[in-house]
Design a protein that fits this description.
Shape: globular
Order of helices and strands: HHEHHEEHH
Oligomer: single chain
Radius of gyration: 18 Å
Strand content: 5-15%
Largest sheet: 3 strands, antiparallel
Distance between the termini: 25 Å
Strand order of the largest sheet: 1-3-2
Helix content: 55-70%
Number of strands: 3
Length: 162
């Protein structure tokens, strides 16, 4: 497969694969060991913590967390079991929302400083300030490209499915 790439494309793709596999794995290990959370669970709780009234529709939470509704449902079930979140009918009357509890908020607030240290150590400390700015631009460009290529994840249909 990589024979179809030119040398720059091969290097770029190799870097993306390495980052996309090693960073989440390292974050999972660290968050599990220190806080009993996976990276995805932390991400869901952090998104809820930043949301108005610490609540968000499940479909929006799945899209913003970059996970499927099924995966999110399993995570919210776990968070409910340990008292860090609950499900409620949406205030609009349409759909279900996940709500971060006070205990969940305390957990994500406690984990955040360690999470930031890990991100700095794993990724950001390897770059100087102009490279960090360049990474931000490139990451945003690629994220927008994915939205255009894959479609609206929250709607559950992608361009590749059509």
């Amino acid at each position: 497969m990589t024979e179809d790439f030119n040398s720059v494309e091969r290097r770029a793709w190799s870097a993306v694969v390495t980052l996309s596999m090693r960073v989440p794995s390292a974050l999972d290990s660290r968050l599990q060991r220190e806080f009993g959370l996976t990276h995805f669970e932390y991400r869901v709780m952090a998104l809820l913590n930043d949301a108005p009234a610490r609540r968000m529709r499940l479909s929006m939470l799945a899209a913003r967390g970059h996970g499927s509704i099924s995966r999110l449902s399993h995570v919210v079930s776990k968070l409910e079991r340990v008292g860090w979140a609950r499900r409620e009918a949406a205030e609009s009357g349409r759909g279900i929302e996940a709500v971060l509890t006070e205990a969940g908020q305390a957990k994500v607030v406690a984990a955040t400083p360690d999470y930031v240290v890990a991100i700095r150590k794993l990724v950001l400390d390897g770059l100087d300030d102009p490279q960090k700015a360049e990474l931000a631009v490139l990451g945003e460009r690629l994220s927008l490209h994915l939205v255009h290529t894959l479609g609206d994840v929250a709607a559950g249909q992608s361009a590749l499915d059509r």
